[in-house]
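User: Second chain of the day. Same drill as before.
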Amino acid sequence: MDRASHATTGGTAPGRGLLRFLTCGSVDDGKSTLIGRLLHDSRTIFDDQMAAVRRDSLRHGTTGDDADLALLVDGLEAEREQGITIDVAYRFFTTPARSFIVADTPGHEQYTRNMATGASNADAAVILVDARKGILTQTRRHSHVCSLLGIRSVLLAVNKMDLVDHSEAVFDRIVADFLGFAGQLGFASIMPVPISARYGDNVIHASSNMPWHRGPTVLGHLETIDVDHGRADMPLRFPVQWINRPDAGFRGAAGTVASGVVSVGDAVIVAASGQQSEISRIVTFDGDRQTARAADAVTLVLAHDIDLARGDVLSHPQARPEVANHVAANLVWMGDEPMLPGRSYLARIGTMTVPVQVSTLKHKIDVNTLDQRPGRTLRLNEIGLCNILFGQAVPIDAYAANRRMGAFIMIDRATNRTVGAGMIDFVLRRATNIHRHSHLINKQARAARNHHKPCIIWFTGLSGSGKSTIADLVERGLHAEGIHTMLLDGDNIRHGLNSDLGFTAADRVENIRRVGETAKLFVEAGIVVLCSFISPFAEERAMVRGLVSESEFVEVFIDVPIEECIRRDPKGLYAKALAGKIANFTGLDSPYEPPVAPDIRIDGLQDSENVAASRIIAYILERCAP
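Assistant: Same format as last time:
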């Protein structure tokens, strides 16, 4: 095939329009080979591309002397060397009936996060199963993720039928197993097709090796899937990406229409604030237009100069999204570290980035049985129904109603990595009679009465480092100087407020969350509160810092090596932990993340407790001076 003939296939085909689909399933089920076969047999690849595949097949191929068509998709060197897909590979091809964008997603469990990325924009899924192996755990997991992400059309491709003698009985058994499992997933249609991607059986052309199959081929079915894109028929949702102000005479809200239609003259409302205006202009790179529809990138100019910023959502006044900060959502966990309820993450929802935490894990989903299982955390690739608490009210729709407005990702604050993908199920209603109350006496008035500024002094370090001893000396010194203080100590707190918590990672996070909120109340009272806690995780220390103003938090790191703490062992805890009598002990079988840039670092090997306390007291007296 020459380049000229290839160019004729580059445009969008008429007919049923564009179909976005993904291939998924367990590792080595033949996903890349199937896509390679579709590209090859539909004649949408260059001659020089095919020549390169034949050359690479001699080095990386798995099909003997034949060209390994999987190499048309597996572009990364690591993928070719290992014979697996790692990243999501997108390919475009057309037939006389329609155009396609196909996402080849990885099968290995550790790359489920990549598969979820591919599924998030797909209209249909081709789920492959190796005829020799049948339905595997990863097949079930990928099927469940497809269901959660709103995919309703599924083609079950039972691959490698050539390796089971094209057996109809094998095919029927696998189909029955899949239908028995997938019946709970809410797919609108499931089309089973027996194939051999390597040899092209039932991929584009019907196979003479399986005359018993009277259904469509893979391509034949994909060409007929009726996808209701329907985004233009949904209520208007316009997330503002940025405010465009090239000069003093122009101000517009730039972004992409997530759903619906907007025209010049339409009344619009800011979902969160309720401010209203009308559309005076719709500006694009190619000039003004009268109307913009879903997926159009435009700048909307409003008739009134209302308060509008990145993250706001414009809608029609009669069809506003809900604005809430507490929702129930299905969460696919993608982080190497487990999800911990109460830990502060960041959420990207629409064009807004806000703090977020999982307030409650309601249950986990067993991907094999779809049963609901109890749990405290989610680990890599696990799925659960969670109560999600955003740091502020955000405009949202249920994912089932609007995939663009009902989805969010969770980001680790420390690494900036995406660790979770969420699909909002419904808004959690809070009691409408609960409101924040403004007091006549505020923090500033209380601080003035005490004649000093309040703050949190946060002592962190390993068990045995001397935190509590130094904190005691610091409080005594501050008290002598007339400073109003309160000391919160880890052991004492666990006798009362946190007596219901253990020492798992999730309990440690909740322990510090409660202490942080308590310390914040003391700051509101105008008091200097000293907190002596191991607080092993940097995320939670940062969370407490974020509860008050920057000037009201002082992090003191008592830096003593683990070897010295074991030698001191004032409470005999290290000896018990090393003997296996205490589990999840910080520094041994549970991690401690030392501060990178503490406000005060005490060298516990060089500085005596009295010297350390004097240094901290001097710092606080200067910080808290009225």
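The chain is about 25% helix and 25% strand.

User: Great, on to the next one.
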